[in-house]
Amino acid sequence: MLEYFDRGKIASLSKYADHHSSQVPDYLDKLEQETWQKVINPRMLSGREQGRILSIFSRMIRPKRIIELGTYTGYSALCLAEGLSADGELITIDINDELEWLRAKYFQLSPFGQCIKSVHGEAICAMDKIELDVDIAFIDADKLNYLNYYKKLRTHMRKGSWIIADNVLWSGKVIDTEAQDDDTLAIRTFNDYVKNDNGVITFMWPIRDGMTIIQIVE
Question: Of 65, 109, 181, 193, which sits most exposed with the smallest number of CB within 10 A?
């Protein structure tokens, strides 16, 4: 809808929408600020708009178990954790332990510090040591393994559970015929595979860098 308006109107409408949405917890605002101040490639942060979508989605599902592949500084994990059931847990996996100090800091500042378990290592290997019968899986790790992550999750997740995949538009490269780098090809392959999986229903949401919401129905 916003494409029908000029940039000034879009900015005003975005402010209006933000004003009429629930306030983001202070610890998330502080985490976002510290990420932009101290971390390389802060654009990798999920950010307010996508974070609120993840929060609302998780609150609707009320998951008992969530797995996240790719933690970065922990923003998306904290948003997903908002919807956990009373005895729920979120397991988040990341290969980069250099940012562990930052995500641990904000996990403890949040109400969900005891519900979130951080695992260090390559996600594809760490998944073999974790029970994958989860209610929500969020894929946001290395792009070359997106399809491998998906296949492994599909094998273990039950009917009615959900998979969310981030960066599925890959900065628009998915429709750029000249873009033939490995990451772009991997995302295209993943997108096509999911589209042709008859056991799921999907919606690719063109928000930020694209996010596909997938429900397992068979």
Answer: 181
